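User: Predict the structure for this protein chain, please.
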Amino acid sequence: MKQMTKKLSLAATTVILASSLAACSSNNNGNGNDTAASNAPAASNNTSTETNANLPTLKRLDVFQGEDYAAYPVAKLLEEKTGYKMQYDMLPQDNPAQKLNLLMASGEPYDIVTSYIDMALYSDYAKKGALIDLTPLIDQFGPNIKNAISQQSMDALKVDGKLYGIPNIITYPVGFGILIRTDWLDKVGMKMPTTTAEFEAVLQAFKDKDPGAAGAQNVPFTIKGDLPMIDDLVGAFGMPNPWNDVDGKLVPRVLDPAFPDYVNYVSGLYAKGLIDKEFVVNKDATAKEKFSSGKAGAIAVHWADIPGIADALAKAAPDAKFTYVPALKGPNGKSGFGANQGFDRVSFIPKSAKNPEDAVKWINATLEPTTFKELAVGVEGTHYTVDNGSYTPILPIFNDERNLANNYMVGTDEANYPQYWQARVRKNPIMFEAFDTLNNKTADSDKILNKLSVAPYLENYSKNNMKLETMAGDYTVKLIAGSEKLDGLGDFQKKFNAEGGEASAKEVNDWYATAK
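Assistant: Here is the predicted structure, written as C-alpha cells:
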C-alpha cells in the first residue's frame, strides 16, 4: 500500500445553543446598510474585473483551514470577479459549534457565516430569529443562485416555509474509517482484520510486540475524545448512523438494543490498553500526531486528512505503509459505514449582518457559471485537464492554488460540481487511494444511507438533537473509560427521553413512515 497530506476537515461538534442567542435578533432588523447596498452592482451574469471602492468590505466567518484565508489565491480571484473585498475569520479546529454559538449570541456582525452542516444548529438559529430570510433577497439579487442550486436543495433547508441558508452538496457518501499501519501488520505476522474479533487480536499484537518500537508511548489504536462512536466499529454492531432502523423504526444509538454490545466491546479494548489511554482528552490534532509520529498503529480519521498525515509520517517512519480497514463484521454478522446524501455545509446571513444585500450579490457573483468553475478547479491547461469528461489536476499548481477552494464556496453549481470535484479528489494520489478504498471499493451493501441526511426540517428533532447528541456522547465516553457502568443505562435512557428523545423519536418516525 502507498503512504497516504492534509486538508483538514471537521465534523461539526454538537453543543447546546447558548440561551442568549435570541438577543442577537435585536441587534439588526435585517435591512442592513441600505446606502452601501444601493451602491452594489446589479445582479447579473457579468462579473467585475476590479474591486469597487464604493462597495462595503464584507465580513465572513468560515470553517477552519490551515492557511490564511485572505492570502490564499482564491481570495484574490473572488475579489476580482465580484468587486468586493472580504474580511475572513475562521472557526477553530476543535469544538467549532461552541465558538459559533458564542459569536452568534454576541451579535457579531458577520455578513456571511459558513459552517459544517448541523440541521439542528441551523434550524435553532432560524427559529430563534437569528437569521435573515433569504428568499426576497435571492428573488431580487440572485439569478445565478437560483440556477445553480436546485429547488429540492432549497426546500430541504426551509424552516417554517422560509429559506435561511444556502447549501453545499455532498459529493461522496463515506468519509471516515479506521486507518491502519499495514507494515505493522507485516511485522506482527497478521493479515488485515475482517471482523471485530480479528481487529482486537491485531491491536493486542500491536501492544505486545510494539512494531513501531515506541516503547511506553506505543498506542495500538488512537481516537479523539469527542467522537466515541467509532466509524466502522459502530457499523459492526448495526449502528453505522446516528439513527438506525430497528424493526422498521429509526432509533438513536443510545436507545438501540445493540448499544450495550458496542460499549462492552469498545470499553473492553480500552480496559486492555488497546485504545489510547488518553483518548478522553485527545483533540483532533493530538490523535493525528500520535499516528503521524509513528506511535500509533491505527486511527479513526477522514480520508481528506490523509495527505497531511502521510507527509508527517514519511518523516518519522519513511517505510510506513497504511490503508483503511474494510467494513468489519461484528458478532452478529453486521457491518457497514454510515453513508450521507444531502449537504456538508450551510451558509447563512445573521440578523446582525451590516450588508445582507451585498452578501447575496457577492454569493450570486461567485455562482456565475464561469466564475464558479474557475473558483472550483482553476483554468484549463493551467490547473487541470479534461479527457472524456474526466477532470484531472495539474500538479503542483492545483494544490498550490485550488487545494482549499471548496472552503470559499457558498453554494455549488449542483449540475456541474460533481464533475469538477473529480479533479479535487485526484489532487493527491495517496488521498485518492484512501477515498477510492472507502467509496468505490466498499461494497454498496456496506454503504448504509443515513436516513436523516435526506430528511426535511423536523422541529422537535432539530430543537433537541444537539443537546441529546452531547448527552449521549459524553455518557458513551464515560462508559468506555469506565467512569460509568452499563447498569445505569436504563436511568440514562429515561433522562434522554425526558430531555426530548421521546418527542424527537415520534416526529422522526412519523416522517419515516411516509418516507419509506
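The two ends are 40 Å apart (CA to CA).
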